[in-house]
Amino acid sequence: MTEDAFIEVDRVEKVFDVRRRTGFLRRERRQVRAVDGLSFTVARGEMVGYIGPNGAGKSTTIKMLTGILTPSGGRLRVAGIDPSRERTRLAHRIGVVFGQRTTLWWDLPLIDSYRLMHRMYRIPDGRYRENLDRLVELLDLSALLEVPVRQLSLGQRMRGDIAAALLHDPEVLYLDEPTIGLDVVSKARVREFLRELNVERGTTVLLTTHDLQDIEQLCSRVMVIDHGRLVYDGALAGLHEVGESERTLVVDLERESPPIDAGDAARVVRVEGPRQWLAFPASGSAAALVARIAAEYPLVDLSVREPDIEAVIARMLYGAGDGGGVDAGDGGGGGASGERETVVPGAGNS
């Protein structure tokens, strides 16, 4: 491990014992290896995307890093602390946001949850007021502070959870789907907030998400996990190249026309009246392609559709024609069944 590593994961394993009914009064016991020999380091102040198909081991990793779960083997350190042995001590240095679970008190107004955390974490009064004011302003929470958490929408609750995770100035922030349920404006606000947090305070961020734009706008590094093993660690552009992923340019012409000729820059994958879908490499820029089409064809409107993260991973792991491998091994669902199926029909539903 390197000396500047803030998060250290060294050959970590996590095995669960699972029992299932095989007959009347009979149960079969088997072991499921959720994390298998996982190793990586994250430097202080890094923002890293941690992605993979459903069931790949992402949440299990986060739970071990927070001390919720104990590894079956290997070594874990966060800020020099063993999470499972010193969970209480570590809690003062980390913040966690689980997109599908809340750390807020369900029946209490949002502000009461913050007051309870003020006491739980023993945050100095001045620092608490300063952090609360800043978070309320940046995350647009002022109108929600007296509203019971159970009455908040998913997007409102997500913003409330992010604020709760940051009240005590954590050194590392674990985010599991932080923009789920947010509208476009709120997503942009949260992303900008996280970017400023990382720059101003040097907060280390480990982000799991199914939204490719979260990764593109926040992370310079991405790690891909599959079946509990690290299969890629590098830049997002490199992931696109390895997975040969494609973006889709949706073009609305003034009238129905033959397929657009974009040369080697793109290929038409669907035509429906005056609307056409063109696929082009995700690692490339759309600007030149758009300029070329605008110069040669009568445009009404156009948009760019990003590839689904699970489709990118499926192509990387199983090839363009075998996305079903994710379904068989991980229960990844339709999003992992192949990029062409995910991107093109989705564009037609808009």
TrEMBL record:
Signal peptide: none annotated. It is a peripheral membrane protein. It is found in: Cell membrane. It comes from Streptomyces achromogenes. Residues 328-337 have a biased composition (Gly residues). InterPro entries: AAA+_ATPase, ABC_transporter-like_ATP-bd, ABC_transporter_ATP-binding, P-loop_NTPase. Keywords: Antibiotic resistance, ATP-binding, Nucleotide-binding, Transport. Residues 13-252 form the ABC transporter domain. Residues 328-350 are annotated as: Disordered. Pfam families: ABC_tran. It comes from the Bacteria. One of its GO terms (molecular function) is ATP binding. This is ABC-2 type transport system ATP-binding protein.
